[in-house]
Protein backbone atom coordinates (compact mmCIF):
# COMPACT_ATOMS: atom_id res chain seq x y z
CA UNK A 1 0.00 0.00 0.00
CA UNK A 2 1.27 3.47 -0.88
CA UNK A 3 0.62 6.70 1.00
CA UNK A 4 -1.89 7.64 -1.71
CA UNK A 5 -3.68 4.28 -1.30
CA UNK A 6 -3.85 4.94 2.46
CA UNK A 7 -5.84 8.11 1.82
CA UNK A 8 -8.41 6.02 -0.05
CA UNK A 9 -9.13 3.71 2.89
CA UNK A 10 -12.87 4.10 3.65
CA UNK A 11 -13.46 6.21 6.74
CA UNK A 12 -15.57 3.46 8.32
CA UNK A 13 -13.92 3.78 11.74
CA UNK A 14 -12.37 6.74 13.58
CA UNK A 15 -8.78 7.44 12.52
CA UNK A 16 -6.12 6.75 15.11
CA UNK A 17 -2.59 8.06 15.59
CA UNK A 18 -0.10 6.18 17.77
CA UNK A 19 3.13 7.87 18.88
CA UNK A 20 6.17 5.72 19.69
CA UNK A 21 9.41 7.45 18.80
CA UNK A 22 11.70 4.42 18.85
CA UNK A 23 9.43 1.88 17.18
CA UNK A 24 10.59 2.08 13.55
CA UNK A 25 12.74 -1.01 14.02
CA UNK A 26 9.80 -2.92 15.47
CA UNK A 27 7.56 -1.80 12.61
CA UNK A 28 10.02 -3.02 10.00
CA UNK A 29 11.08 -6.17 11.86
CA UNK A 30 14.70 -5.04 12.06
CA UNK A 31 17.21 -4.39 14.82
CA UNK A 32 17.22 -0.59 14.79
CA UNK A 33 15.65 1.59 17.46
CA UNK A 34 14.98 0.77 21.09
CA UNK A 35 12.83 -2.31 20.33
CA UNK A 36 11.60 -2.98 23.85
CA UNK A 37 8.27 -4.38 24.97
CA UNK A 38 6.53 -1.02 24.46
CA UNK A 39 7.63 -0.82 20.84
CA UNK A 40 6.50 -4.36 20.04
CA UNK A 41 3.15 -3.90 21.77
CA UNK A 42 2.41 -0.55 20.12
CA UNK A 43 3.37 -1.99 16.73
CA UNK A 44 1.14 -5.01 17.31
CA UNK A 45 -1.73 -2.67 18.20
CA UNK A 46 -1.20 -0.51 15.10
CA UNK A 47 -1.17 -3.45 12.69
CA UNK A 48 -4.21 -5.06 14.36
CA UNK A 49 -6.21 -1.84 14.01
CA UNK A 50 -5.15 -1.47 10.37
CA UNK A 51 -6.24 -5.05 9.63
CA UNK A 52 -9.66 -4.25 11.10
CA UNK A 53 -10.05 -1.34 8.69
CA UNK A 54 -8.97 1.64 10.81
CA UNK A 55 -6.91 4.41 9.26
CA UNK A 56 -3.82 4.20 11.47
CA UNK A 57 -0.96 6.68 11.53
CA UNK A 58 2.21 5.92 13.46
CA UNK A 59 4.64 8.67 14.51
CA UNK A 60 8.28 7.76 15.09
CA UNK A 61 11.79 9.15 14.68
CA UNK A 62 13.41 9.25 11.26
CA UNK A 63 15.72 6.24 10.91
CA UNK A 64 15.87 6.25 7.13
CA UNK A 65 13.45 5.74 4.26
CA UNK A 66 10.87 8.23 3.00
CA UNK A 67 9.38 10.81 5.34
CA UNK A 68 5.99 9.10 4.99
CA UNK A 69 5.64 5.40 4.15
CA UNK A 70 3.03 2.67 4.58
CA UNK A 71 3.90 -0.73 6.12
CA UNK A 72 1.25 -3.42 6.66
CA UNK A 73 -1.51 -0.84 6.20
CA UNK A 74 -0.02 1.55 8.80
CA UNK A 75 1.01 5.02 7.62
CA UNK A 76 4.35 5.86 9.23
CA UNK A 77 5.17 9.55 9.61
CA UNK A 78 8.71 10.51 10.65
CA UNK A 79 9.10 13.43 13.04
CA UNK A 80 12.86 14.09 12.75
CA UNK A 81 16.21 12.38 13.25
CA UNK A 82 17.22 11.55 16.80
CA UNK A 83 20.20 13.92 16.73
CA UNK A 84 18.87 16.42 14.17
CA UNK A 85 19.27 20.13 14.85
CA UNK A 86 21.63 22.15 17.00
CA UNK A 87 22.54 20.88 20.45
CA UNK A 88 20.68 22.91 23.07
CA UNK A 89 18.01 23.97 20.58
CA UNK A 90 16.96 20.61 19.08
CA UNK A 91 14.59 20.05 22.04
CA UNK A 92 12.30 22.67 20.51
CA UNK A 93 13.34 22.42 16.86
CA UNK A 94 13.21 20.07 15.11
CA UNK A 95 11.94 17.68 17.83
CA UNK A 96 8.90 19.57 19.15
CA UNK A 97 8.13 21.29 15.85
CA UNK A 98 8.58 17.96 14.05
CA UNK A 99 6.09 16.30 16.38
CA UNK A 100 3.53 19.08 15.81
CA UNK A 101 3.98 18.82 12.04
CA UNK A 102 3.55 15.03 12.14
CA UNK A 103 0.47 15.20 14.37
CA UNK A 104 -1.07 17.71 11.99
CA UNK A 105 -0.29 15.42 9.04
CA UNK A 106 -1.88 12.48 10.83
CA UNK A 107 -5.05 14.53 11.43
CA UNK A 108 -6.50 11.70 13.51
CA UNK A 109 -9.67 11.49 15.54
CA UNK A 110 -7.74 10.17 18.55
CA UNK A 111 -4.09 10.10 19.68
CA UNK A 112 -2.33 7.44 21.76
CA UNK A 113 1.07 7.48 23.45
CA UNK A 114 2.87 4.95 25.65
CA UNK A 115 5.88 5.97 27.79
CA UNK A 116 6.81 8.50 30.47
CA UNK A 117 8.55 11.37 28.67
CA UNK A 118 8.23 15.03 27.73
CA UNK A 119 6.38 13.95 24.57
CA UNK A 120 3.41 12.99 26.77
CA UNK A 121 2.83 16.65 27.60
CA UNK A 122 3.56 17.88 24.08
CA UNK A 123 0.93 15.54 22.63
CA UNK A 124 -1.58 16.48 25.36
CA UNK A 125 -1.14 20.21 24.63
CA UNK A 126 -1.72 19.76 20.91
CA UNK A 127 -4.77 17.54 21.49
CA UNK A 128 -6.21 19.95 24.07
CA UNK A 129 -5.88 22.92 21.71
CA UNK A 130 -7.59 21.01 18.89
CA UNK A 131 -10.10 19.13 21.04
CA UNK A 132 -8.81 15.69 20.07
CA UNK A 133 -9.00 12.85 22.61
CA UNK A 134 -5.68 11.67 24.03
CA UNK A 135 -4.96 8.28 25.63
CA UNK A 136 -1.83 7.73 27.70
CA UNK A 137 -0.63 4.20 28.46
CA UNK A 138 1.95 3.42 31.14
CA UNK A 139 5.20 1.59 30.53
CA UNK A 140 6.84 1.20 33.93
CA UNK A 141 6.06 1.49 37.65
CA UNK A 142 8.31 4.57 37.84
CA UNK A 143 5.87 6.40 35.54
CA UNK A 144 3.85 7.06 38.71
CA UNK A 145 6.60 7.83 41.18
CA UNK A 146 5.99 11.53 42.01
CA UNK A 147 9.74 12.17 41.83
CA UNK A 148 9.84 10.81 38.24
CA UNK A 149 13.38 9.42 38.59
CA UNK A 150 13.62 8.38 34.92
CA UNK A 151 13.23 11.95 33.65
CA UNK A 152 16.41 14.02 33.74
CA UNK A 153 15.26 17.67 33.58
CA UNK A 154 12.65 19.82 35.31
CA UNK A 155 11.14 20.66 31.91
CA UNK A 156 10.74 16.97 31.03
CA UNK A 157 9.05 16.32 34.39
CA UNK A 158 6.78 19.34 34.03
CA UNK A 159 5.66 18.36 30.54
CA UNK A 160 5.05 14.75 31.55
CA UNK A 161 2.95 15.78 34.56
CA UNK A 162 0.91 18.06 32.30
CA UNK A 163 0.32 15.22 29.84
CA UNK A 164 -0.62 12.76 32.58
CA UNK A 165 -3.12 15.22 34.07
CA UNK A 166 -4.70 16.14 30.75
CA UNK A 167 -4.96 12.68 29.19
CA UNK A 168 -8.61 11.79 28.61
CA UNK A 169 -7.87 8.20 29.64
CA UNK A 170 -4.88 6.75 31.46
CA UNK A 171 -4.30 3.04 30.85
CA UNK A 172 -2.16 1.08 33.32
CA UNK A 173 -0.90 -2.49 33.23
CA UNK A 174 -1.43 -3.54 36.84
CA UNK A 175 -3.55 -2.81 39.88
CA UNK A 176 -0.39 -1.60 41.65
CA UNK A 177 0.05 1.05 38.96
CA UNK A 178 -3.59 2.12 39.27
CA UNK A 179 -3.09 2.65 43.00
CA UNK A 180 0.20 4.49 42.37
CA UNK A 181 -1.27 7.00 39.90
CA UNK A 182 -4.06 7.69 42.39
CA UNK A 183 -1.82 8.09 45.43
CA UNK A 184 1.01 9.86 43.60
CA UNK A 185 -0.98 12.19 41.32
CA UNK A 186 -4.61 12.02 42.44
CA UNK A 187 -5.71 10.69 39.05
CA UNK A 188 -7.81 7.75 37.94
CA UNK A 189 -6.79 5.05 35.49
CA UNK A 190 -8.18 1.92 33.86
CA UNK A 191 -6.32 -1.41 34.11
CA UNK A 192 -5.92 -3.25 30.80
CA UNK A 193 -3.44 -6.14 30.45
CA UNK A 194 -0.82 -5.81 27.73
CA UNK A 195 -1.23 -7.98 24.61
CA UNK A 196 1.23 -10.52 23.26
CA UNK A 197 1.11 -12.81 20.20
CA UNK A 198 0.57 -16.46 21.05
CA UNK A 199 3.40 -18.96 20.53
CA UNK A 200 2.96 -20.86 17.27
CA UNK A 201 2.83 -24.68 17.16
CA UNK A 202 3.28 -24.91 20.93
CA UNK A 203 3.07 -28.27 22.69
CA UNK A 204 3.57 -28.62 26.43
CA UNK A 205 5.19 -32.06 26.25
CA UNK A 206 8.33 -30.91 24.47
CA UNK A 207 9.46 -28.69 27.38
CA UNK A 208 10.65 -31.47 29.69
CA UNK A 209 13.00 -32.96 27.08
CA UNK A 210 14.94 -29.74 26.54
CA UNK A 211 18.48 -29.27 27.89
CA UNK A 212 18.92 -26.83 30.77
CA UNK A 213 19.06 -23.40 29.12
CA UNK A 214 18.13 -20.18 30.87
CA UNK A 215 17.09 -17.22 28.73
CA UNK A 216 17.74 -13.59 29.69
CA UNK A 217 16.36 -11.13 27.14
CA UNK A 218 16.35 -7.36 27.66
CA UNK A 219 18.42 -4.25 27.07
CA UNK A 220 21.90 -4.40 28.58
CA UNK A 221 21.46 -1.42 30.89
CA UNK A 222 21.68 -0.75 34.62
CA UNK A 223 17.93 -0.99 35.25
CA UNK A 224 17.86 -4.58 33.94
CA UNK A 225 20.92 -5.62 36.05
CA UNK A 226 22.53 -8.13 33.65
CA UNK A 227 25.50 -8.19 36.05
CA UNK A 228 23.31 -10.27 38.39
CA UNK A 229 22.71 -12.73 35.57
CA UNK A 230 26.46 -13.11 35.05
CA UNK A 231 26.99 -13.71 38.77
CA UNK A 232 24.29 -16.36 38.56
CA UNK A 233 25.91 -18.00 35.53
CA UNK A 234 29.24 -18.22 37.33
CA UNK A 235 27.46 -19.84 40.30
CA UNK A 236 25.77 -22.40 38.02
CA UNK A 237 28.47 -23.68 35.62
CA UNK A 238 26.37 -26.74 34.69
CA UNK A 239 23.55 -24.57 33.25
CA UNK A 240 23.71 -22.77 29.90
CA UNK A 241 22.62 -19.11 29.76
CA UNK A 242 21.57 -17.08 26.71
CA UNK A 243 22.14 -13.33 27.05
CA UNK A 244 20.06 -11.50 24.45
CA UNK A 245 19.63 -7.78 23.84
CA UNK A 246 21.19 -4.56 22.58
CA UNK A 247 24.13 -3.06 24.44
CA UNK A 248 23.73 0.52 25.71
CA UNK A 249 26.65 2.85 24.85
CA UNK A 250 27.85 3.37 28.42
CA UNK A 251 30.65 1.98 30.56
CA UNK A 252 28.33 -0.27 32.61
CA UNK A 253 26.87 -1.99 29.54
CA UNK A 254 30.26 -2.38 27.87
CA UNK A 255 31.78 -3.92 31.00
CA UNK A 256 28.90 -6.40 31.26
CA UNK A 257 29.21 -7.25 27.58
CA UNK A 258 32.96 -7.87 27.77
CA UNK A 259 32.62 -9.89 30.97
CA UNK A 260 29.83 -12.03 29.50
CA UNK A 261 31.96 -13.05 26.55
CA UNK A 262 34.53 -14.56 28.94
CA UNK A 263 32.07 -16.81 30.82
CA UNK A 264 32.02 -20.25 29.18
CA UNK A 265 28.39 -21.13 29.92
CA UNK A 266 27.03 -17.79 28.63
CA UNK A 267 26.17 -17.31 24.97
CA UNK A 268 26.09 -13.62 24.05
CA UNK A 269 23.64 -13.03 21.19
CA UNK A 270 23.41 -9.23 21.13
CA UNK A 271 20.28 -7.78 19.47
CA UNK A 272 18.41 -10.31 17.35
CA UNK A 273 15.82 -9.75 14.61
CA UNK A 274 12.23 -10.33 15.64
CA UNK A 275 11.79 -13.47 13.58
CA UNK A 276 14.51 -15.19 15.66
CA UNK A 277 12.97 -14.43 19.06
CA UNK A 278 10.49 -17.38 19.13
CA UNK A 279 13.40 -19.73 18.47
CA UNK A 280 15.16 -18.47 21.61
CA UNK A 281 12.12 -19.25 23.74
CA UNK A 282 11.69 -22.66 22.10
CA UNK A 283 15.28 -23.58 23.02
CA UNK A 284 14.96 -22.40 26.65
CA UNK A 285 13.62 -24.14 29.72
CA UNK A 286 13.25 -21.03 31.87
CA UNK A 287 13.25 -17.23 31.64
CA UNK A 288 15.28 -15.26 34.15
CA UNK A 289 14.73 -11.56 34.92
CA UNK A 290 17.14 -9.61 37.14
CA UNK A 291 15.70 -6.06 36.95
CA UNK A 292 15.53 -3.57 39.79
CA UNK A 293 12.14 -2.33 38.56
CA UNK A 294 9.78 -2.89 35.63
CA UNK A 295 6.21 -2.34 34.50
CA UNK A 296 4.93 -5.63 33.13
CA UNK A 297 7.74 -7.12 31.02
CA UNK A 298 6.71 -8.31 27.58
CA UNK A 299 9.28 -11.08 28.00
CA UNK A 300 7.16 -12.57 30.82
CA UNK A 301 4.20 -12.83 28.48
CA UNK A 302 6.32 -14.36 25.73
CA UNK A 303 7.77 -16.87 28.19
CA UNK A 304 4.37 -17.91 29.55
CA UNK A 305 3.04 -18.15 26.00
CA UNK A 306 5.77 -20.75 25.44
CA UNK A 307 5.06 -22.47 28.76
CA UNK A 308 8.30 -21.30 30.39
CA UNK A 309 8.47 -20.65 34.16
CA UNK A 310 9.87 -17.25 35.16
CA UNK A 311 12.54 -16.80 37.83
CA UNK A 312 12.60 -13.10 38.63
CA UNK A 313 13.63 -10.37 41.04
CA UNK A 314 10.47 -8.44 40.11
CA UNK A 315 6.85 -9.57 40.39
CA UNK A 316 4.08 -7.43 38.78
CA UNK A 317 1.02 -7.36 41.03
CA UNK A 318 2.56 -10.36 42.86
CA UNK A 319 1.26 -12.56 40.01
CA UNK A 320 4.23 -14.92 39.89
CA UNK A 321 3.94 -15.70 43.59
CA UNK A 322 0.15 -15.86 43.92
CA UNK A 323 -0.57 -17.71 40.67
CA UNK A 324 2.48 -19.97 40.89
CA UNK A 325 3.97 -18.91 37.54
CA UNK A 326 7.60 -19.19 38.62
CA UNK A 327 9.75 -18.19 41.59
CA UNK A 328 10.63 -14.77 43.02
CA UNK A 329 14.17 -14.27 44.32
CA UNK A 330 15.89 -11.08 45.47
CA UNK A 331 19.59 -12.01 45.63
CA UNK A 332 21.96 -14.06 43.48
CA UNK A 333 22.02 -16.98 45.98
CA UNK A 334 18.21 -16.94 45.99
CA UNK A 335 18.17 -16.89 42.18
CA UNK A 336 20.53 -19.86 42.18
CA UNK A 337 18.32 -21.82 44.57
CA UNK A 338 15.22 -20.92 42.53
CA UNK A 339 16.78 -22.14 39.28
CA UNK A 340 17.88 -25.40 40.89
CA UNK A 341 14.39 -25.91 42.28
CA UNK A 342 12.71 -25.33 38.91
CA UNK A 343 15.10 -27.35 36.75
CA UNK A 344 15.67 -30.37 39.02
CA UNK A 345 12.08 -31.26 39.91
CA UNK A 346 10.08 -32.42 36.84
CA UNK A 347 6.76 -32.30 38.70
CA UNK A 348 7.40 -28.77 39.95
CA UNK A 349 8.53 -27.70 36.49
CA UNK A 350 5.42 -29.17 34.85
CA UNK A 351 3.15 -27.39 37.34
CA UNK A 352 4.78 -23.98 36.76
CA UNK A 353 4.75 -24.46 32.99
CA UNK A 354 1.06 -25.34 32.88
CA UNK A 355 0.16 -22.45 35.18
CA UNK A 356 2.10 -19.95 33.06
CA UNK A 357 0.59 -21.14 29.81
CA UNK A 358 -2.93 -21.09 31.27
CA UNK A 359 -2.47 -17.60 32.71
CA UNK A 360 -1.29 -16.25 29.35
CA UNK A 361 -4.15 -17.81 27.38
CA UNK A 362 -6.76 -16.50 29.81
CA UNK A 363 -5.42 -12.94 30.16
CA UNK A 364 -2.99 -11.72 27.50
CA UNK A 365 -3.85 -13.11 24.07
CA UNK A 366 -3.94 -10.27 21.55
CA UNK A 367 -7.43 -11.16 20.37
CA UNK A 368 -8.68 -10.76 23.95
CA UNK A 369 -6.78 -7.63 24.98
CA UNK A 370 -6.74 -5.39 21.91
CA UNK A 371 -10.55 -5.12 21.66
CA UNK A 372 -10.47 -3.60 25.19
CA UNK A 373 -8.22 -0.79 23.93
CA UNK A 374 -10.48 -0.44 20.90
CA UNK A 375 -13.51 0.06 23.13
CA UNK A 376 -11.70 2.82 25.05
CA UNK A 377 -11.00 4.59 21.74
CA UNK A 378 -14.52 4.21 20.38
CA UNK A 379 -16.09 5.46 23.60
CA UNK A 380 -13.80 8.50 23.66
CA UNK A 381 -14.44 9.42 20.03
CA UNK A 382 -18.18 9.02 20.48
CA UNK A 383 -18.11 11.26 23.55
CA UNK A 384 -15.97 13.84 21.75
CA UNK A 385 -18.36 14.01 18.81
CA UNK A 386 -21.41 14.27 21.06
CA UNK A 387 -19.76 17.12 22.98
CA UNK A 388 -18.92 18.93 19.74
CA UNK A 389 -22.51 18.48 18.55
CA UNK A 390 -23.88 19.93 21.78
CA UNK A 391 -21.59 22.95 21.53
CA UNK A 392 -22.68 23.53 17.95
CA UNK A 393 -26.40 23.30 18.77
CA UNK A 394 -28.45 26.44 19.51
CA UNK A 395 -28.95 27.09 23.19
CA UNK A 396 -32.47 26.51 24.45
CA UNK A 397 -33.60 28.95 27.15
CA UNK A 398 -34.44 27.35 30.46
CA UNK A 399 -37.63 28.72 31.96
Mean pLDDT: 88
Uncertain stretches: 388-399
- C-alpha-based Rg, rounded: 22 Å
- Which percent range describes the beta-strand content? 5-15%
Shape: globular
Secondary-structure element order, N to C: HEHHEEEHEHEHEHEEHEHEHEHEHEHHH
The computed structural class is alpha/beta
> How can the largest sheet be summarized?
8 strands, mixed
Distance between the termini: 57 Å
The level of helicity is: 40-55%
Number of strands: 14
Report the total helices. 15
Strand order of the largest sheet: 3-4-2-1-5-6-7-8
Question: What labels describe this entry?
Answer:
399 residues; alpha/beta; disordered C terminus; globular; single chain
Description of the structure:
- With 399 residues, the chain is of the alpha/beta class.
- Helices cover 44% and strands 15% of the residues.
- The chain is built from 15 helices and 14 strands.
- The chain has helices at residues 3-7, 24-28, 37-52, 91-106, 118-130, 154-166, 175-185, 226-235, 251-261, 277-282, 298-305, 319-322, 332-344, 346-363, 366-392; strands at residues 16-19, 56-60, 68-71, 74-78, 110-114, 134-137, 169-172, 190-191, 213-217, 240-244, 266-270, 286-289, 310-312, 326-328.
- The strands form two sheets. The protein has an eight-stranded mixed beta sheet, with helices on both faces. The chain has a six-stranded parallel beta sheet with strand order 11-10-9-12-13-14, with helices on both faces.
- β5 (110-114), α5 (118-130) and β6 form a beta-alpha-beta unit.
- α4 (91-106) crosses α5 (118-130) and α13 crosses α14.
